[in-house]
Amino acid sequence: MKTELFSSAITNRYPLTFLYDLQPITFEPYLIARNRTGKKVIYGRESNSNAIKVFEFDKIYNIKINFSHRFSPIIPILPIYN
């Protein structure tokens, strides 16, 4: 179920809000993958930061998709834009 929600948000460029270790996170998802230990993770950018962060699926709860807003991914090509 989580994978379907995240895949839909990634495809349609919708931001998400969820609880991660009981902390509220507003997030722009980019990629679903597995880390070195084999756990499923999601990569993306928090809305108040330019850094890409990784979140483990096991610690994500209460996922909500924000359908009223769409985002454009920030891809750092040149160092002057970082």
Describe this structure in words.
This protein is mainly beta and 82 residues long. It has a 5-stranded antiparallel sheet with strand order 4-3-2-1-5. The longest helix has 11 residues, at 2-12. It has one helix spanning 2-12, and strands at 16-20, 23-34, 40-46, 52-56, 60-65. The chain has 1 helix and 5 strands; from the N terminus they run αβββββ. A hairpin with a 5-residue loop joins β3 (40-46) and β4. The N and C termini lie far apart (34 Å).
General form: globular
Note the run of SSEs as H and E.
Answer: HEEEEE
Number of β-strand runs:
5
Widest beta sheet: strand line-up: 4-3-2-1-5
Class derived from helix and strand content = mainly beta
| Mean pLDDT score | 87
Helix content: 10-25%
Main beta sheet? 5 strands, antiparallel
What share of the residues does DSSP label as strand, in percent? 35-45%
* Gyration radius, in Å: 13 Å
Low-confidence stretches are none
Number of helices: 1
Task: Quickly describe the structure.
With 82 residues, this protein is mostly beta strands. Helices cover 13% and strands 43% of the residues. It starts with a helix and ends in a 17-residue tail after the last strand.
Annotate the secondary structure layout.
Elements lengths: L1 H11 L3 E5 L2 E12 L5 E7 L5 E5 L3 E6 L17
Antiparallel strand pairs: 1-2, 1-5, 2-3, 3-4
Core attributes:
about 80 residues; 5-stranded antiparallel beta sheet
